[in-house]
Amino acid sequence: MKKLNRKNFIVISVFILLIVIACLLAYKFTSTNSDKLVELEKEGMYSIGKHYFKSLYPLDESSVELMAKKLNKRYDMYLQNHDNVYFAVVPDKSYYVKDYGYPTLDYDRMIDILNENINENIEYIEIKDTLSLDDYFYTDNHWKQEKLIDTVNRIGEYLDFKISKSDFKRITCDSFRGYYMKYLENDTITEKLHYLVNEHTDNAVVENHRNPYFNKVYDDIKLNTEIQYDVFLSGVSPIIKITNRIVNNGKELIIFRDSFASCLTPLIISEYQKITLVDVRYLMTSLLNNYIEFNNQDVLFLYNSGVVNKSKTLR
Questions:
Q1: Which residue has the higher pLDDT, 168 or 185?
Q2: Does 53 fall in a domain?
Q3: Pairing of β 252-257 and β 298-304
Q4: Looking at the structure, do residues 33 and 137 belong to the same domain, yes or no?
Q5: DSSP letter for each residue of the chain
Q6: pLDDT of res. 114
Q7: What domain range includes position 199?
Q8: Dihedral of CA 255/203/270/295: which sign?
Q9: pTM listed for this prediction
């Protein structure tokens, strides 16, 4: 074997040195970030790009089956005389990064189980293809209201309405901090929250069972609280009734819901004379007829996949 000349030796040595330096820098970077990631994962948290996620894995099939039974029970108790009864499930935003290697909830299997067990008179509305990762907040699990036009219009294909983004004016909060902030070391992260207004949201009267002194669609004061997402309909409540004072079409809608419906509902106020939101996490199903006169209203069961995977929370 020929000996290396001095010039080649220097070139190879420099090349090896550069590789060693690069490896050391890469180790330092990945070690620092993995330490942070391990810390996040103690709470089931992980991050991809700017987005933070809280794992819902694994799928609890027994909970999904129980969810179907609970929807069927509500149908049998109150909705047998209703012509338009539908259900939709909001995917957790992790559904849109399921190929990144993190264990994620099997949303598609969840939907299959629901469709296999839910009363055939409760029709499924698929919405997963109307959404993408960009339609969710970075630091929160919720979806963004301004991104829901396609989702709302998919629901409208079944409930006979269509809305346009041009019908709304956008109001912006520049310093939104989502629910996941409490898990993060960097507490300076902020993002924008937008909410949409028009003459219907401005003129609607809201009866909020939990907050009877607030009667508007948007609660701006909540933007200065720990849970800023509560700007939509002032947060959780067992019963919320929204009356549209400038529509007299006789149409009514009942939404059995969780917090995801809070920002979707204002977008369809224009289509109904009255909308009633029901959150049975805070109210027994057997008591509903004390608050609602069931009379062939349109009905939508709208829940996010996290609630479906823990359906015992529904009473």
A1: 168
A2: no
A3: parallel
A4: no
A5: -PPPPHHHHHHHHHHHHHHHHHHHHHHHHHHHHHHHHHHHHTTTEEEETTEEEE--PSP-HHHHHHHHHHHHHHIIIIITT-S-EEEEEEPPGGGGGGGGSS----HHHHHHHHHHHS-TTSEE---GGG--GGGB-SSSSSBPGGG-HHHHHHHHHHHT----GGG-EEEEEEEE--GGGGG-S-TT--EEEEEEE-HHHHHEEEEESS-TT--SSB-GGGGGSS-GGGGBTTS--SEEEEEETT--S--EEEEEE-THHHHHGGGGGGG-SEEEEE-TTSS-GGGGGGT---SS-EEEEEEEHHHHTTGGG--
A6: 99
A7: 58-313
A8: positive
A9: 0.86
- Tell which phi-psi region holds residue 216, choosing left (phi > 0), alpha (psi between -120 and 50) or beta: beta
Q: Is residue 52 part of a domain?
A: no
Within-domain flag for 1: no
- Could you give the CA distance from residue 53 to residue 99 in angstroms, rounded to a whole number? 14
Mean pLDDT computed over 96-124: 96
The total number of structural domains that make up the chain: 2
Q: What is the pLDDT of residues 30-82, one digit of tens each?
A: 333 333 443 446 678 999 999 999 999 999 999 999 999 999 999 999 999 99
- Cβ burial of 36 (10 Å; 0-12, 13-18, 19+) is middle
What mean pLDDT do residues 245-267 have? 97
Look at residue 19 in the predicted model and tell me its pLDDT: 62
